[in-house]
Amino acid sequence: MPEIETITIRKVAKRLLPLIFLLYVVCLIDRINLSFAALTMNRDLGLNAYVYGLGASIFFIGYFVFEVPSNLLLDRVGARLWITRIMISWGLASAAMALVSGETSFLVVRFLLGFFEAGFFPGMILYLTFWFPSAYRARVIAAFMLAIPVTGVIGGPLATSMLELNGTLGLAGWQWMFLLEGIPAALMGFVVLAFMTDRPSRANWLRPEEKQWLEDTLHRERQEVENAHSRLSLWQALIDPRVLALSLVYFGIGTATYGVVYFLPQIIKGWGLSNLQTGFVSSIPDIVGTIGMVVWGFYSDRSTDRRRSAATALLVCTVGLVGLGLFGASAWSLIAMAMVSVGLNASRPLFWALPSLFLSRTAAAGAIALINALGNLGGIAGPTMLGWVKTTTGSFSGGLYFLGACTFIAAIVVLMSVRAPSRVAASLAE
């Protein structure tokens, strides 16, 4: 490996990855806090499991509406300004959850939160393609997405600790939680404005020869992708069968993820635990998931077949979801939860390395956003189904089996989807 490559990639990673990792942690804390707020908020507002599931789901309708336009705007105006806008608006919307007073306001604010956050995640995936050659993308996406299990570890104890502020200054604990976790997101927008750099050509923290090497490498890889697959227009990318297949896979991942995220604290509390105990117990599967994600990523980097590694991870998740439905409140449920965490967390970075194998430029911006938008409609299916099953049967088991079926189908579809062009595959193996 040339010395300039090593030095340049190290500089870029040290400059960008800590910032976007922190942004994603803040984003995820503001997503999962609803599940812990539900431990007391649902009773205070008179929300049953179905209405709560609907509120968790309606976030993704707002998200879907603005996802593709948001990513196209990021590609046009630059990540620095657009991510700043996203952080400030979603942080204020998240804090505004402290003001909801009933079913209508709950649904309205949740919709607005999704609308304002739209574009953050696909924007970050697109942003990483502006800075890292293909040989590094799976690992840097994994480093970025390590925020998911890490947030699971710290998010539960943090949120339930804030619930203990109940009654302070006349506010409920869940209101304090939304305020104290929403305002920092808005403030992080100003950090983005100060420290984020749009493209390598504008990086005054790289030497001229480092910028030149990085820009030449990225340009060459774009040409290889376009020569192998032909350069797609935005519309061609949006209707490409591979993009639609990846959207279906991500729908399965999203359905399982959000079904588990928004109801896991209630499942665990059903074991007879206190709110604070629930927060700490919910972090255990994510600790295992963090370790599993790192180990899985290490071994999968030795293979050029990202699809097979991702499919195997999804099958592990499927077994875990079925086990969680079967074992109920027994100790075996923790093992099943750990399998779910490992499977979901290991599959995501492998999955998001796939689109850039056949997409580039504006087509990549639009298609990545579309995949994420359609996939995140699983955030409607998962919580709504789990809430309906719980309300109808008094048990979560049937809903968990449904989530397992979704990840099983996703595993089958991902095996039949994208293959890397030979040159790109060779670079992944280096």
Question: SSE layout and pairings?
Answer:
Layout: H1 3-45, H2 49-77, H3 79-95, H4 103-117, H5 120-129, H6 134-145, H7 147-163, H8 173-195, H9 208-229, H10 234-238, H11 241-269, H12 275-281, H13 283-300, H14 306-327, H15 332-352, H16 361-375, H17 378-393, H18 397-415, H19 422-429
Provide key terms for this protein.
430 residues; mainly alpha; Growth Hormone, Chain: A; disordered C terminus
Task: Explain how this protein is built.
- By secondary structure, the chain is mainly α.
- The chain has one domain (15-200, 217-429): MFS general substrate transporter like domains (Growth Hormone, Chain: A).
- The protein has helices spanning 3-45, 49-77, 79-95, 103-117, 120-129, 134-145, 147-163, 173-195, 208-229, 234-238, 241-269, 275-281, 283-300, 306-327, 332-352, 361-375, 378-393, 397-415, 422-429.
- Helix 17 (378-393) packs antiparallel against helix 18.
- Mean pLDDT is 83; it is low at 421-430.
Can you give me a brief rundown of this structure?
By secondary structure, the protein is mostly helical.
**Assembly classification:** single chain
The run of helices and strands is HHHHHHHHHHHHHHHHHHH
Distance between the termini: 9 Å
Would you report the number of β strands? 0
- Specify the CATH class: Mainly Alpha
Q: Tell me which CATH architecture applies here.
A: Up-down Bundle
- What number is the mean pLDDT? 83
Strand content: under 5%
Number of domains: 1
pLDDT under 50 segments (min length 5)?
Answer: 421-430
Structural class designation = mainly alpha
What is the CATH homology-level superfamily? MFS general substrate transporter like domains
- The dominant shape is globular
Helix share bin: over 70%
Count helical runs. Answer: 19
> Do you know the CATH topology?
Growth Hormone, Chain: A
Taking the sheet with the most strands, its summary is: none
Instruction: Supply Rg.
Output: 21 Å
